[in-house]
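<amino_acid_chain>
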Amino acid sequence: MFINEVCKTCALTKKAVEYYIAQGLVAPSVQENGYRDFSDADIERLKKISVLRGLGISAAELQKILSVQQEMGDAALKAISDRKRMEIAVMQEKRQLLQELSSTQDWDLVQKKLRQLQNKQSVLARLQEAFPGYYGNYICQHFAPYLNEPVETQEQQEAFETILDFLDRVHLELPADLQAYYCEVTAAYDDTIMETVDAKVKSAYGDMERFLAENREAIEAYMKYKASEAYQSSNAFRLEQELKQFISASGYYEVFLPAMCRLSKSYREYRKMMMNANQRFVQEGLYGQAETN
């Protein structure tokens, strides 16, 4: 198919198609007379490009999404979707600040809240970059409520800078086969699922006696399965070990979490509750060791 017909089929301008050719996103064959001949595969690729550009995906991001390996392209598309979600959330908060400024004319207060929002966004964006995919989304969901407090003291400012420095230095990278497994098992997880999981975790740690009374049998069955040969020879076990090794080696517990405690009073109180609850798990023989987020 020649370029004029391709433009009609794919809802793209000739200039746009030529740009994507120049960027190496599509490579039609060239006939002896110099005309470019687009294959069915080229046309399908251009249709995808047309859709993605319409969704606001930049030309630079297209190459990652249109990867030869489907799982890599899917992961890139999911990462961009997650980033867009965060950007939309920030824009909504900025819109609220504009409304507040319009009604109160309190420029100093709005400036203070804007700086707080920018600090929060700086941490969340780095968390998403350091821990990509579902795990990063869950961590962002988990820590976001504790990043709403203003940075007012020198200790808080130093803690904030420590957090940014830590996140700028770490990045979780999984072996290719585990990355594919990770993408597969988390493909259906969305914001609602993450919010539900996080809420249930916080509820459980808030009332440990009730949680243990209602769930002891299920917890014991789960721990028995985790000790089984079937689990320890599975990709799920390998993924768990990779995550544990990364977190241990990165200084997550020694640097990041203590800095979060210094930055946020509400997180400091939450972590204390988590430590007490996890210690109870250890005492009950339900965990080999306590781990807290």
Observations:
- The longest strand covers residues 29-30.
- The mean pLDDT is 87.
- The chain has 15 helices and two strands.
